[in-house]
Amino acid sequence: MAKFSRKSKSSDNDGPVKLYGYHAVKAALENTQRKFISLHLTKNMLDRLIEEGVDFPIEPKMENPRQINQLVGEDAVHQGAVLVCHPLEQPTLEEVRHHDLIIILDQVTDPHNVGAIHRSACALGAGALMTTRRNAPPESGLLAKTASGAFEYLPYIQVTNLARSIEECQALGFTTIGLDSEGPKDLVETLTGSHIDKVALILGAEGRGLRRLTRDLCDHLARLDMPGPIKSLNVSNASALALFVCQQALSAAK
Question: Are residues 173 and 79 in the same domain?
């Protein structure tokens, strides 16, 4: 999968970001669309990246673990790698319209959840992840670390007005399906019972779920029926399962 390109829309996060961790840093170094500021590595991490055949578009600065800690904090699981760079610019919805599956998050605020969803969405072939500019995490080291390199492949689109953007998705041919535990149909039934060839899957925050206006705008509300005694999943696990179901249905319909 090719890295996505920088586009005309920029992130709200205008300052540099500090990416850390092996997978996040390696993927960013291999993304020709990244604009780098500085690269900080321990000797062990430098050797590992060289062994992996990584080309260095910027000269690495050798640091010890304590110096790395000072860059990103002791709580960051940096694995001896920190890359300071500019945030990626974000594509418009028009520029991702050729994909048949995208995912939309309605005020999911936890960067661990958003990063995990980003990783799953990338692995399952989604074309973009869209969320709000407010009440959602900007591009950050923690988000990229949790996404485990997926941030360089899957566009992260933050919009000011989610309702308007959902309507734009519909105008671009996407069928919008909101996950809701009280949905009238199971997701599998929703997908197989309709002529759907492009899906924008929408998930809300844990606990609150989708906001009322978001629910009202969805073409369909669907639930995930669980066969076991536990009937609910956290938002990152629910998104992975729902994306898989969507991909299976879209592939079968082709």
Answer: no
In a domain, 9, yes or no: no
How many Å apart are CA 160 and CA 146, to the nearest integer? 24
Q: Tokens standing for 254? A: 């082709």
**CA 33 to CA 88: how far, in whole Å?**
8
Can you tell me the distance from the alpha carbon of 234 to that of 35, in angstroms, rounded to the nearest whole number? 35
| pTM for the predicted model, two decimal places | 0.91
208 and 234 in a single domain? The answer is: yes
Distance separating alpha carbons of residues 53 and 206, to the nearest angstrom: 41
Q: pLDDT at position 13, please?
A: 59
Half-sphere exposure of 233 (CA within 13 A, CB side): 19
Domain finish residue from 51, 85, 119: 85
Question: For 69-104, what is the HEC assignment?
Answer: HHHHCCCCCCCCEEEEECCCCECCHHHHCCCCEEEE
Report CA-CA distances (Å) from 175 to 42, 115, 213, 218: 48, 24, 16, 8
**Phi-psi category of residue 105: left, alpha or beta, with phi > 0 → left and psi -120 to 50 → alpha:** beta
Residues 9-22 have pLDDT tens digits of 445 556 899 999 99
Find out whether 84 and 1 touch, Cβ atoms under 8 Å. Answer: no
> Which one, of 203, 200, 212, lies nearest residue 232 by Cα?
203
Does 10 fall in a domain?
no
Q: Which helix (H) or strand (E) holds 214?
A: helix 212-217
61/39 Cα distance (integer angstroms):
6
Band the pLDDT of 72: cuts 50, 70, 90: very high
Q: Give me the sign of the Cα torsion angle 97, 99, 100, 101.
A: negative
